[in-house]
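User: Here's a structure from my thesis project, written as structure tokens. My advisor, Dr. K., wants to see whether a designed sequence matches the one we expressed. Can you design one independently, without my sequence as a hint?
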């Protein structure tokens, strides 16, 4: 077949919804996962770089079945060095070495025609099934010349919604095939690769794949095991069997390989009535470059095309064979371990609780361990894992040295464990205006779970009251990352009808704003968190238009209330956590946190009624009071601490209905207040009021 591509114009159809429907694997949900995002990525690259598109297409005009090198033995195997970069957050995506070994087994069996299921190939294609003579081996020498297992582990939150920015610690593509393993992909696919010469940067050239589609064991399964085979085909210049011109199941297409029939592409395994494009000619539904999930084979033409890629300078694929001998060894090498341990940093517990630390060293198998647990019992250990108890509140460091006969390494985490008081610090309420900066640093815990390391910090740049507040310096560097602040434990059970409020100011993005702020509560010492407050996007913003480096004025602060349910209000040990998720907006500020109980509340006498309207109020506040008998009345306005800030009325009231008006000029600044009514018969009634 001849090359039939108008690539950029027609790639728009490459990932139509029909692909998603047929190309799914269900992983703990019913959401389908398309196998491949290569076409989508190619469209993005070529749209921004037409010259790269032209160069790639020019390189495709090569004779098919061309002899790569007349001096090469027809049985020679081409061995290529591979490195797996496991990008993980200490979850299931941190796949085992065994799962990587299994993935290589599947990959090599498929490329060498050693997969047992070739016996299931449709009889019309049995004679076309071919051994590519290409195989893959984990590198044994890293870019710096040191011993490596060919598997490295990189803790990073970029494992989630991964894209080219998640391709951390790239090894030179002229020596290694880089495979990055992550938890999920931003484009929703299982994996994607770059065809030779199509990567905008050498440092992104390679394969990005979900942990759930690597090999057939562990976090993956046999159904997903051929994803790497498919993507490695792309890396070595194979197209989907229907070409690059449309999505499967839409139009008949061509992959520039002579012995693969024209096909529409298949999202299910139809082996009988599949002569859609050419009557009487079956389509190669079982091809590894299909979407059928019954793929079993490469054709001889495809194998020749991949070998041609290995002898082409496009994308430096030819350098892989040249450099391979110096990067591979036939014998097992025991490398020195790279120390690491679980759980990850910033483990939150209360005094008296235990943490189970476990060795997670990689690169080499350790035979010796030396732990140091600052503030822990025991303070040290030589075991591979160790339960440690912490009795004293504070932030505690943990270090681990792991070693074997080839060497050792040490890792220290200064903030490995955060121990909070087992007993509440506050029993009659908690207020924080951040004016006492020492108290904030000793009682509150602020953490950044982000590559930018931005977190809640004390600032005197702006404040709702006084001089200080806390802020998160937010911008494009916080995209998809977050910061947290945990308050000291509060005893709400000792308080009467506690209420929670705070002041905040936020500068929205210039584009649709999707930053968010949450407040969570925990009554089990941080083991589980219950969401009690959330604001998103434009509803979070207190200032318009967008201001980079936002600093609020006095009018750009807003009072917020946090809902407390019965379980929380009745707990004697409650933690509250603020969590801000950055999406590219501007700065966030928090001030005047109040968790208090209004003073003097008692049950109202059935013979009286007391209401306030409107509530919240802005211009006028009206109190409605009904009395069944004459009373001496005192009506006060209280702040959140129960202090009187205004005497609204004092004197006798006759039986009947009464109205007390509070006009705008008499009203306090915005905030939460209480109106308390005290009657001469001993009745005390209190109503909360919000002034906007």
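Assistant: Designed independently from the structure alone:
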């Amino acid at each position: 077949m001849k090359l039939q591509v108008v690539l950029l114009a027609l790639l728009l159809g490459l990932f139509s919804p029909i692909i998603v429907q047929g190309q799914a694997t269900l992983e703990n949900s019913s959401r389908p996962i398309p196998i491949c995002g290569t076409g989508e990525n190619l469209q993005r690259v070529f749209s921004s770089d037409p010259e790269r598109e032209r160069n790639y297409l020019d390189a495709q005009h090569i004779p098919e079945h061309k002899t790569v090198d007349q001096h090469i033995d027809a049985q020679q195997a081409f061995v290529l060095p591979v490195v797996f970069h496991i990008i993980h957050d200490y979850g299931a995506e941190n796949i085992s070495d065994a799962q990587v070994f299994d993935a290589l087994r599947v990959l090599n069996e498929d490329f060498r025609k050693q997969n047992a299921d070739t016996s299931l190939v449709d009889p019309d294609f049995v004679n076309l099934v071919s051994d590519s003579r290409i195989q893959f081996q984990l590198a044994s020498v890293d870019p710096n010349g040191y011993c490596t297992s060919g598997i490295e582990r990189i803790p990073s939150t970029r494992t989630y919604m991964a894209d080219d920015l998640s391709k951390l610690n790239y090894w030179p593509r002229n020596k290694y095939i880089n495979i990055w393993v992550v938890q999920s992909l931003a484009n929703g696919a299982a994996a994607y690769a770059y065809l030779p010469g199509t990567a905008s940067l050498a440092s992104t050239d390679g394969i990005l794949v979900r942990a759930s589609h690597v090999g057939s064991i562990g976090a993956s399964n046999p159904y997903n095991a051929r994803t790497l085979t498919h993507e490695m085909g792309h890396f070595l210049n194979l197209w989907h069997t229907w070409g690059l011109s449309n999505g499967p199941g839409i139009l008949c297409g061509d992959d520039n390989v002579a012995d693969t029939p024209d096909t529409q592409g298949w999202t299910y395994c139809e082996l009988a009535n599949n002569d859609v494009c050419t009557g009487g000619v079956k389509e190669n539904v079982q091809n590894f470059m299909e979407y059928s999930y019954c793929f079993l084979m490469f054709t001889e033409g495809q194998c020749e095309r991949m070998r041609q890629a290995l002898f082409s300078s496009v994308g430096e694929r030819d350098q892989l064979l040249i450099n391979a001998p110096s990067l591979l060894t036939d014998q097992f090498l025991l490398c020195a371990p790279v120390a690491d341990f679980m759980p990850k940093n910033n483990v939150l517990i209360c005094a008296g609780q235990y943490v189970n630390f476990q060795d997670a060293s990689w690169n080499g198998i350790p035979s010796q361990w030396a732990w140091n647990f600052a503030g822990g019992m025991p303070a040290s250990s030589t075991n591979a894992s160790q339960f440690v108890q912490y009795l004293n509140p504070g932030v505690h460091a943990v270090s681990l040295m792991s070693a074997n006969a080839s060497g050792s390494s040490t890792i220290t985490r200064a903030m490995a464990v955060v121990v909070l008081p087992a007993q509440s610090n506050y029993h009659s309420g908690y207020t924080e205006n951040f004016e006492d900066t020492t108290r904030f640093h000793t009682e509150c815990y602020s953490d950044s779970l982000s590559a930018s390391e931005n977190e809640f910090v004390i600032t005197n740049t702006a404040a709702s009251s006084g001089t200080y507040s806390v802020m998160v310096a937010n911008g494009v560097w916080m995209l998809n990352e977050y910061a947290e602040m945990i308050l000291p434990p509060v005893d709400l059970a000792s308080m009467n009808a506690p209420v929670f409020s705070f002041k905040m100011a936020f500068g929205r993005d210039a584009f649709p704003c999707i930053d968010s702020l949450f407040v969570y509560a925990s009554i089990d010492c941080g083991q589980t968190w219950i969401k009690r407050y959330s604001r998103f996007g434009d509803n979070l913003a207190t200032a318009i238009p967008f201001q980079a480096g936002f600093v609020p004025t006095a009018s750009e602060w807003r009072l917020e209330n946090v809902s407390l349910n019965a379980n929380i209000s009745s707990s004697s040990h409650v933690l509250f956590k603020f969590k801000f998720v950055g999406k590219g907006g501007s700065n966030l500020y928090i001030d005047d946190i109040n968790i208090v109980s209004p003073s003097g509340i008692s049950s109202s006498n059935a013979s009286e009624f007391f209401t306030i309207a409107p509530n919240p109020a802005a211009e006028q506040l009206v109190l409605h009071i009904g009395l069944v008998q004459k009373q001496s009345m005192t009506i006060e306005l209280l702040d959140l601490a129960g202090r009187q800030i205004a005497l609204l009325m004092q004197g006798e009231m006759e039986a009947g209905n009464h109205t007390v008006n509070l006009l705008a000029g008499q009203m306090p600044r915005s905030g939460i207040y209480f109106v308390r009514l005290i009657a001469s018969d001993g009745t005390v009634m209190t109503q909360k009021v919000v002034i906007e």
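When you compare it with your expressed construct, this may help: The chain is about 15% helix and 30% strand.
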